[in-house]
Specification:
The protein is mainly α. Helix content is 53%, strand content 3%. It contains 15 helices and 3 strands. It has a 3-stranded antiparallel beta sheet. A hairpin with a 2-residue loop joins β2 and β3. α2 packs antiparallel against α3. It is globular and about 65 Å long. The protein binds iron/sulfur cluster. Iron/sulfur cluster binds next to α9 and α12.
Length: 298
């Protein structure tokens, strides 16, 4: 590790110690399960929306065994309107696997974490680093962008290339595992709050003295700026409406009731088929229920 990269991490950690947001999943000793739940929720949802959902989830299911003892349908219900509800199903599967394979304790080893349902390269390393203080590169979109700018002098990170991203970020981490974990948290926070995609606040950035992109005069991005994803009128919106009806229901919902949520027959059928294919919804005769609420034949 060169002096420059070690100083980069040191600067980031110093900034983080003074500026990090006070988030409940960062409290010392919070435990691996609350951290794992937060990482899954935060992947596609902003902090402000995750906070109440995370608190409610952990109040109801403080340990993996608690969630494993409940139905997948209840997990989908609790997920509410957080979006991308397959994550609720994966978290439930994860809790079942943690109970069956690890006696209800979230494992500490990276390979064991990676083998859990719904736990990908990012989440596994985030849990290993933030819950267990291990030295792993934790690379989300924000970190990729920060590293691309500060180290490579590029305006943005370009397409994800996992091995290269991991190598580039690991090269910045201090040797001591606890410092490395703190640096990972600092890089993520800097990417989320300061080195943002559209308006990086270089004037407030602790890495400004060493940032390659800033030194190059902040060349413009090569490609067009990505537009925010449209939601209104998409299959995602229809899926959300269908799920909302099923979440509220206390028993099987007739197809005819679901037909009322969206007038376009083709799009509604496609959205429902997608929910069934994803394992979120089950169909029985001409009624629908959330996963695991359908009972058994016979
Ligand atoms: S100086 Fe600007 S571009 Fe460089 S890392 Fe900081 S915020 Fe990002």
């Amino acid at each position: 590790m060169s002096t420059t990269t070690s100083e980069l991490a040191a600067d980031a950690i110093r900034w983080y110690d003074e500026n990090a947001r006070d988030l409940p999943w960062r409290e010392p000793g919070i435990g691996a399960w609350p951290i794992l739940v937060s990482e899954v929720m935060l992947q596609q949802t902003p902090v402000i929306r995750v906070l109440p959902a995370w608190r409610a989830w952990l109040a109801r299911w403080p340990r993996p065994a608690d969630l494993a003892a409940d139905t997948p349908a209840e997990a989908i219900r609790m997920w509410g309107r957080l979006g991308y509800p397959r994550r609720a199903l994966r978290l439930h599967e994860c809790a079942v696997a943690v109970l069956a394979r690890h006696g209800g304790e979230v494992p500490t080893g990276l390979d064991e974490l990676l083998a859990l349902p719904g736990v990908g390269a990012y989440t596994a390393r985030a849990v290993a680093a933030f819950a267990y203080g291990q030295r792993h590169p934790v690379v989300d979109t924000n970190v990729r962008r920060l590293v691309a700018r500060a180290v490579a002098g590029e305006p943005d990170a370009g397409p994800a290339t996992r091995p290269a991203d991991l190598v580039a970020t690991e090269a910045l981490l201090p040797v001591a595992p606890d410092r490395a974990a703190r640096a990972s948290a600092a890089f993520m926070e800097l990417g989320a709050l300061v080195c943002t995609a559209r308006a990086p606040r270089c004037v407030d950035c602790p890495l400004a003295y060493r940032c390659a992109w800033l030194a190059s005069g902040r060349t413009a991005p090569a490609g067009p700026t990505r537009r925010p994803q449209r939601y209104a009128g998409t299959d995602r919106q229809v899926r959300g409406r269908l799920l909302a009806v099923l979440r509220e229901a206390t028993g099987p919902v007739p197809r005819a009731r679901l037909d009322l949520v969206w007038s376009d027959d083709l799009q509604r059928s496609r959205a429902l088929a997608g929910l069934i294919e994803d394992g979120l919804v089950e169909m029985r005769d001409d009624t629908c229920v959330l996963a695991g609420e359908g009972g058994t034949d016979g």
